[in-house]
Amino acid sequence: MHHSVIFAIVGASVSLVSASPLIAVGSPSVPGVATFNNYTQQGQSVCLGKGGSQKPSNPAYFGTAIGDISKDISGGLCDGSHGGPDQSPQSYDASQCVADGGQQPDFSTYQGPACPIPQGSTCGLCFKVDNLGNIANAPLQTPIGTVTVQVIDACPAGNAQNYCKTDEAPNQRCQDPTTNSLDIDMDAYQQLTGAAYNDVAQVSLF
Length: 206
Description:
The protein is mainly beta. Helix content is 4%, strand content 25%.
């Protein structure tokens, strides 16, 4: 649920596959946006609970959270998230946005929203993610990288860690109900992009 970077892979192709074996089911692909998170530093998740490793048991997979208002892949709304199109900051409790120039809540007192456990039917599911987007204003002619991610968490629109980030575009903070959002383990970044992880990279959204 904690985004550690300000960039996204835009236009990622996300194909739903079963966890084991990897057999495609449902729609062959849906468009989406990926952000990245440091799950090594995260102490808990919706699917794996509190404490212990916040990584999939299969080392070939990377952990991911699904935006709970994602258009096609949501596992159910977390407490406080709106299911409709009104995801503006005014729709949420802006009084929580008191740290980092109003871009974050006070982490010493803020408690994030509860989410369905398991997260709908998505805990443990895997997605094949192809990087088809524009990174650092460099359009990709062909997919530059593919990873398999496994759902371990949710990214709630109603979490102040997301809705307070008004300096970021809604589709980079799980706030866009017209987008499919995945918040992927930062360890997947190099495999997806062919470049070393860089938390100050800028992204073209067009």
